[in-house]
Amino acid sequence: MADRVVPPATLIIEIDALIQSIAVDAQAMLAEWREWDIAPGFQPCAQNLADYLALRRHDLRPLQRALMRLGLSSLGRLESRVVPALITVRAALAALNGEIWRAPVDDDTFFAGDARLAAAAEALFGTARRTRSAALMVTCPTEAADDPAFMQHLAARGVEALRINCAHDGPAQWERMIAHARAATLPGAPPMKVFMDLAGPKLRTGKIRAHHHARHVFTGDRIAIVAPDAIDCKVPADVRFTMTCTLPEAIAAAAPGQRLLIDDGHVAAMITAREGPMLLADVVRTRDKGIKLRPEKGINLPDTAMAIPALTAADRAALAFVAKHADGIGYSFVQNADDVAALQAELARLRPHDWDRMALVLKIETARAVSELPEIIVRAAARQPVAVMIARGDLAIEIGFARLAEMQEEILWIAEAAQVPVIWATQVLEQLVKEGMPNRGELTDAAMGARAECVMLNKGPYLLEAIDWLDTLLGRMEHHLHKKTPQLRPLASWA
Fold first, then answer.
1. Is the Cα dihedral 87, 92, 96, 101 positive or negative?
2. What pTM value is reported for the model?
3. Which CATH superfamily is domain 205-300 in?
């Protein structure tokens, strides 16, 4: 049965009620955020984010369908302009109801959010190439410290930003990388922006001790997790492996009934018991042929609330260099607004006069960071330029691979509502970068990166070839898609 046409007068009442509800709920959010002394330039962004969060508390699907039936906007692309979009739809309904059409907002007001987002992206990453609007960020390998040609190749290809991972190398190598990057700047072109990632707390496997001559861990096996100095402790007779964890605080925080994931989720276990400082866990999923446990593999505890500061002692030591040399900071393991405040306080100590000019990249890689994303963004952007990195590797482990696609969409929406740029990261064209030939799935994934303001490539032997592929791919996709909005250019394939 066809949908019944809802009269415009009825929809006007519904839109008015929605606008009023949003105003009340958004004001309550803003009242909490204002204690962070939001800079004037970000105030309209915070307002729009609060409006969007208030809007998305409602199930809009019946309203969307009724508006579509009348040939009006379904409200499905209003992230950057919540209230102007609602007011405009209401005005169109009024015209359909017999009132004289009056444009409720001018063009500059309607598209102000888009303009703020574009300006923020340009400030962070510089002017993108004419062939594409999304910027490119490239992770520097160790070799870049001693190979000036590497930066020259990047500059020739129009790469806008560099990422230096502070978990690797050291100040001497970092300084040479930056010097090579500055020297590679082409005449008339802006220098590549330099972003430096803080390592954050390392939740990793340490020493591994096998029992009963075990070589691989299988589904059904029991493992013990202990502090770094307790590898030789006594364990129950049915334990097949003892492994240390680099962060004892994580062991203390975890509890029976919570999940334990090792090595990018290749080993999935459930914590079943605690015996003093020791955790015992049963492996519930791994490969049929088993997995060899190794040191320095990632550990994830997605159900565990860990009071571990995102800013470690090593990060504080690296910040002295980063604050002096970098254009922006990648903040690993940021979990809440307090983590942001801690980093900003340290920056203010190191650069008291202009710390708030440094860009801050919020790396969203845990379930807790996702749940507190709006507050994290507002606390950061209240004082300095901000971008959000969708760190999809760790995030997939934390929330589950089945939810990753859904969650990366929602992060894109929240960031657009806050009018802050997004960096599409982790394993972009990974097979091409490592082996020289892409697979079909990663080409589609990279194409979807056109919805972000920046796409990041990791290091590998075929990095330059991947840049060329990505440059073409992003340039073509942006003619078809801008954020959530399809761009209806003429289709040449069937002309």
1. positive
2. 0.93
3. PK beta-barrel domain-like (2.40.33.10)
